[in-house]
Design goal:
Low-confidence stretches of chain A: none
Mean pLDDT of chain A: 95
Number of helices of chain A: 10
Shape of chain A: globular
Structural class of chain A: alpha/beta
Order of helices and strands of chain A: EEEHEHEEEEHEHHEHHEEEHHH
Oligomer: homodimer
Radius of gyration of chain A: 18 Å
Number of strands of chain A: 13
Strand content of chain A: 15-25%
Distance between the termini of chain A: 31 Å
Largest interface: A-B, 34 and 34 residues
Largest sheet of chain A: 9 strands, mixed
Strand order of the largest sheet of chain A: 5-4-1-8-9-10-11-12-13
Chain lengths: 306, 306
């Protein structure tokens, strides 16, 4: 593939939600959230993002505009009668733990992702952190995809392990944090967890650990990228989704799964996630300048330039 | 300084102890432990290590030989009547936490480190994880030192904060793990903690986080080195001391505090620590071949070769 090739689009299936978040230093009410929102805005800096999701009739034009203003194709977001998925949570003092105060699935409860005909040939697919049964349904509809990434969380490991294993056996890459990786794999080390998860199906596993960076495991390949070190962490919500968006966006842009491209994908995911946590909702990743993104990318790689 | 210069010796003051350790998979009884033992054996692969410490009359020739067989100068280890410092602990299932079952200070209770006249001009000094009051006493006796590193732990942060601050204001580098760094600095992020600690005195701070690597903070300098990823973690005891030994050993060997040397010091500390955790006591770092050490060093740096 030539480096002059056009970026390929990224199909994203996930939640589009309202988040109400309390942190030790502030709060946001009914702000745009959901995995598909974070993934798509992050990916939009690298490629064309196409979103399939569902919202209620309380989801207004200005909410949709936060995505479409970034060139995200939102025609796959179905608007239906009822209320948009609403999550309410409160972070602990250290921002590493949170309590869910309310999860109102609302219209998301009956979400049945139908991939529009025009999207079915999309080569790159990101399965946001939703019920593995829905992820399976998307996989059924996107069989020609070249590369499928997925995210998941402890809730699905606890409650839908069988379906989760089914999804894992069909995807190319899993994004997961370290504790969840160890839980999923029943292992005590990151390396042990990564090997066990790769044996479940995905050729690649990306294990994340907040401000201590992330590791990608692949065939004869282990790549480590540190995190951008920040002092002003406002709200971690969406950091993982944003990471996936930056990572997948770079893969869509470059096309090839070389060592170098995968390392750069980790770096871009890391950079985009660092902006997310500096503000509530998607505020940190909206309307970023190329200069600001590139400066942080240099700052990141400088830490491993010996 | 020429790259052909001779390695400078490293003076190490710390505990020499017997450790009795239980892990989920095994145990060691009355095995060689203590900060000075781990630091000196690790450093011996890079330079001449000189130890000042105290042991009891139950400390036999074969215990001492584990250090001296590596060329460690043990003439500064005073042998006195009574029993050697004995620590007994049990690790939890995940090896990240442990309970202290017994701490018998024994002869260490009256330890008053007297630096032999011949050692007082040693340019590089490592203050092992002991009472800050003892660390201060060593500092008084080694005023001409070019570079002083120190280690500490939550126990001293809790019980001897004032003396600890006094030590910090006189050393060049602090080794500390991430949780303890945040506790010491009363900060919620690694970066915030590092900045606050550097304001307390040390020009450099190395913050460690087990299998997620370590970060060095210095003047206009942030360097990150991942950890060697292992599946066979047997006993984490001494990993931090070993890290310090490899780090300081490399600095003694190379002499200059350049970006490149500091990064390599982080890497060598990481490599040596990875051997320690693969076995009980000092077994993992005794009689290592240069080939084995170098192979692991290459494996480590390969993770950040993009």
């Amino acid at each position: 593939m030539s480096s002059q090739q056009q970026a390929q689009p990224l199909l994203i299936v996930g939640s589009v939600a309202f988040d109400s978040v309390e942190t030790p230093t502030g709060r946001a009410d009914m702000a745009l959230g959901g995995s598909a929102s974070f993934v798509s805005i992050a990916a939009s800096y690298f490629t064309q993002a196409l979103v399939v999701g569902v919202v209620g009739d309380d989801f207004e034009a200005h909410h949709m505009a936060r995505m479409s203003d970034h060139g995200v194709d939102v025609r796959g977001i179905e608007k239906t009668r009822g209320k948009t998925f609403h999550w309410r949570g409160r972070y602990h003092e250290d921002l590493n733990n949170r309590d869910t105060l309310e999860t109102a699935l609302n219209v998301f409860q009956h979400f049945n992702p139908i991939i529009p005909e025009a999207y079915r040939g999309t080569p790159y697919v990101m399965l946001g952190n939703i019920d593995p049964k829905l992820q399976l349904s998307v996989l059924e509809q996107t069989k020609g995809a070249r590369f499928v990434g997925m995210d998941t969380m402890n809730f699905w490991i606890d409650t839908a392990r069988e379906a989760l294993h089914d999804v894992l056996s069909h995807v190319d890459l899993l994004f997961i944090n370290d504790e969840e990786a160890m839980q999923l794999a029943d292992q005590w080390t990151v390396l042990g967890a990564a090997e066990a998860i790769r044996a479940m199906g995905p050729k690649y596993v990306v294990i994340k650990r907040g401000e201590f960076g992330s590791v990608l495991f692949g065939p004869d390949l282990t790549l480590f990228v540190p995190a951008v070190l920040l002092t002003n962490v406002v709200d971690p919500t969406g950091a993982g989704d944003t990471f996936a968006g930056g990572f997948m966006g770079h893969i869509c842009k470059t096309g090839e799964l070389t060592r170098s491209n995968l390392a750069q994908a980790l770096a871009w995911g890391t950079v985009m996630a660092s902006f997310t946590v500096e503000a509530f909702s998607v505020d940190g990743i909206c309307n970023l300048s190329r200069e600001k993104i590139d400066a942080r990318h240099r700052q990141l790689l400088d830490m491993v330039r010996y």
